[in-house]
Amino acid sequence: MASNGFWVADSDMHVMEPADLWQRYMDPTWEHAAPVGLTEIERDMRVKVKNSVLLRMGSMRPRDRGRPWKTEQVPAFAHAEASNWDARSQVAAMDTEGLDSTVLFPSRGLFVLAIQSAEHIGPDGLEPELAAAIARAYNDWMTDFVRDCDAPGRVFGAAMLAPHDVGQAVDELARCAERGFKAAFLVPGLVDNKPWHHPRYDALWREAERLDLPVCFHGGGTTYLKPDFAFSEHLDKLMLWHAFNQPLGIMFVTTCFTAGGILERFPQLRVGLLEGNCSWAPFMLYRLDEHWEWTGKYEAPELRQAPSAYFLRNCFISCEADEAVARHYFEDYGDDNVVFSTDYPHADSKYPHATEAFLSLGFDPATQRKVLWDNYARLYKVPAPATPPGAGPGGPAQG
Predict the structure, then answer these.
(1) Does the pLDDT of residue 244 top 80, yes or no?
(2) How far is CA 204 from CA 7, 135, 269, in A?
(3) Residue 265 clears pLDDT 90, i.e. is over it
(4) How many CB atoms lie under 10 A from the CB of residue 185?
(5) Which has the minimum average pLDDT: 190-199, 207-216, 342-351?
(6) Which end of the chain has fewer beta carbons closer than 10 Å to its terminal beta carbon, N or C?
């Protein structure tokens, strides 16, 4: 199941969760407050949580003016839609794209916790206990979904954590580690305006380091978290706000973990920076290093090395299938921490030709091998498939 003799892995393949996931999986204590997935528009990823619908809709226009889904995606996704995006269709999509392994991330689940804490904004916010229950329900569903994929050694889950209550997030991370999850994920926005390097989150980073599980950040659409990386109050078209949203969120997280000192305090912690491109990193890391040299002695005396050094030591960043300008990152920072994503089954995905598109960029074969497999295996601690590259899908190697 390889391309050009390489194993291929998707660092953050998406599922399309059923609309009634939380109604079926919420703890009875919170079933009256279960989020409800919406199904009103094409491949609807929105979810109603308390008084809010997320992701937030932007400016509306008549359908005949166009839509984000491409015509060729209708037959590409037909097999999955016909089976309501079930586990078997997920594995079929992997086979079609030629993927040997993946860690699964959500669609609706990228937004379901994207409301600030009730302790911060009042009744329209999420109660920490409710947020934790929403995360547990998703993780229980994902446990069943991975089981139903019936592809041991190929398909793994990323655990949803609710930062509204750090103590419960720590407990949930440990529970999911016991269930075989390969990572935890958070969105870049903040639930109470405290940045990720605030000490309140240290217990979570400490537990992830102890469990040897990476913490991954993955943005999504416009939500109610702050900062608003989409500038959605000012940019009213998908073409405009979406260009900002994903990369800026990842830049913010990068700043918190490197210059903010998290990776100095937790030197073994692995961080996944997903679906935000990698081409901006040479510029951003240059800026962070420059400012550390300028004011670091008195603003961040605890940092013992430049932000870029922490980034290269601890962080993994994803490359889009057609990101030709990733060559600038490879030229400046090498190819030891870049992973690959198909973005299946979202509107901007290149599925079922994502791997083909990446290989067509013409990067050095050694770089292709690292991006398509080696770095993924290091980020998630996933063993190599039992079958050699090109021999078809298989479980992990024994030994």
Answers:
(1) yes
(2) 32, 15, 11
(3) yes
(4) 23
(5) 342-351
(6) C
CATH number at residue 262: 3.20.20.140
Identify the CA nearest to 322 among candidates 301, 342, 297, 344.
Answer: 342
Residue 182 tokens, joined: 């390969």
Residue 40 domain flag: yes
Beta strands in the chain (DSSP E): 9-14, 36-37, 47-49, 52-54, 101-105, 155-160, 183-186, 215-218, 271-274, 315-319, 338-340
- Tokens in use for 324? 């030709």
Tell me whether residue 192 is in a domain.
yes
Task: Using DSSP bridges, classify how beta strands 47-49 and 36-37 pair: parallel, antiparallel or unpaired.
Answer: antiparallel
CA distance 270 to 285: 18
Domain total in the chain: 1
State the residue for tokens 């959500």.
106
Q: How far apart are CA 155 and CA 158, in angstroms?
A: 10
Residue 398 pLDDT more than 60?
no
- Dist CA 218 CA 195 (whole Å): 16
The Cα 333–Cα 376 span in angstroms is: 17
Question: What's the pLDDT tens digit per position in 150-208?
Answer: 999 999 999 999 999 999 999 999 999 999 999 999 999 999 999 999 999 999 999 99
Per-residue pLDDT tens digits for 11-38: 999 999 999 999 999 999 999 999 999 9
Query: In this structure, what token pair is assigned to residue 260?
Result: 């903010």
Residue 312 domain-assigned? yes
Cβ–Cβ under 8 Å, residues 275 and 341 = yes
The tokens describing 214, both together, are: 């990476």
Which structural domain, as residue segments, surrounds residue 254?
9-380
Predicted TM-score (pTM) of the model is: 0.95
β-sheet with 315-319: strand ranges across: 9-14, 101-105, 155-160, 183-186, 215-218, 271-274, 315-319, 338-340
- Predicted confidence at residue 393, as pLDDT, reads 61
Place of tokens 């590259």: 389
Residue 4 covered by a domain: no
Find, among 243, 104, 90, 245, the residue nearest to 182 by Cα.
Answer: 104
Is residue 113 a contact partner of residue 135, using CB atoms and an 8 Å limit? yes
Distance CA 10, CA 398 (A): 22
